[in-house]
Every structure is written in structure tokens, then in C-alpha cells.
Amino acid sequence: MKKLSALFVFSFLSMLFFASDLQAQTAPADYFVGTWNVKAIGLPNGDTNLILQFEKKDGKLSGGIVDAATKKVINPFTKVEVVNNKVTAYFMAPEQQMEVYLNLEKKDDTNVKGSIMDMFNMEGTKAK
Q1: Residue 44 three-state SS
Q2: Which residue of 41, 44, 45, 47 is surrounded by the most CB atoms within 10 Å?
Q3: 22 — alpha (psi -120 to 50), left (phi > 0) or beta?
Q4: Total Cβ atoms within 10 A of residue 78
Q5: DSSP characters for 60-113?
């Protein structure tokens, strides 16, 4: 009977740890889902306000840069990666005809900080 109880406790704890590990893997991506108002600071053309949109499709993040007037994606992300509390999104810069990346890191529940190409700082808030 003691072996059966120990086996039950071990099985229960294993499932608990597996569930918490699974939640830790999915939670960071879910944090970024939605629309973000971001300011890129110090770009060659000056500070620029951007609207970034992330959505989850088939378990992966996608999205792009949104036009403020039409509310439609005008520059889609070519790739989105999430590691821990940081998302990196790649897109084609129309002016330079090259792939550029930006990264955002969770600051708190509604704020992020990051950079474009690790050169230009960004800060933003989640749109309501």
C-alpha cells in the first residue's frame, strides 16, 4: 500500500511539474499577442511612432507593422521568435531593401522596451 501511495504522489508531482513547464513555455508568446504602440528613438529620420501587431496562428506568432490610418498591416513580419520574455521580429525595410529586426522585452504587464537592430532604442505600451 505504501508503494502505491508513493507511486501516486510521484505521478501527481510529475504531472504538476509538466503542466507548469508547459505553461512557462507558452506564456511569453501569449504576452505579446495584441497591438503595441511603440516609439523608436534616434532613427536617422528622427523618433518614430510605430504600431506593432502580433497574433498567434497555429501556435506561432506572426503579425507586422500597422498603418495608423487604415489599421492594416503594411509591413508583415517575415519571422517571429520568442525566447523567455523577449520577442524578436524580422521584416523587410522598404527604404533599404534589407531584412531588419526589432526586439521587445517585457518590462511589466503592459510595457515593453527593446531596440531595432540593437542600435535604436524602443519603448512601448500595449494598446487597449
Answers
A1: coil
A2: 41
A3: alpha
A4: 14
A5: EEEEEEEPTTT-SEEEEEEEEEEETTEEEEEEEETTTTEEEEEEEEE-SSSEEE
Q: Is 58 left (phi over 0), alpha (psi -120 to 50) or beta?
A: left
Quick one: average pLDDT of 19-46? Answer: 78
Mean pLDDT of 26-51: 91
Measure the CA–CA gap between 100 and 122, rounded to whole angstroms: 14
Pairing verdict, β 98-106 and 111-116: antiparallel
Better-predicted residue by pLDDT, 1 or 12: 1
The CATH topology of domain 2-126 is Lipocalin (2.40.128)
pTM, rounded to two decimals: 0.76
Instruction: Report the distance separating Cα 28 and Cα 18, nearest Å.
Output: 17
Side chain identity, residue 108? D
